Amino acid sequence: MKAYQVKTQGTCARQITFAIDDDGKLRDVKFLGGCPGNTAAVGKLVEGADAKHVADILRGNLCGARGTSCADQLAKGIDQALNA
Is the CATH code 3.90.1010 the one for domain 2-83? Predict the structure, then answer.
């Protein structure tokens, strides 16, 4: 399992940490900052899910006029991890 740390841009959350196990499943998704209830719920919902599938679902979700969201930033972080 490999752990990742993403510095977010344009969101209330400042950082996202997560791991992708050898089977491509997401583990231990945690947000630093942001809306605690929402970010904790996202982490619980994606736990054990296929990382690529999660990125496909969350990519492009926006928070108001920010042009991104915590979920979108997670998708971008997953994309970077999978393409590394």
Answer: yes
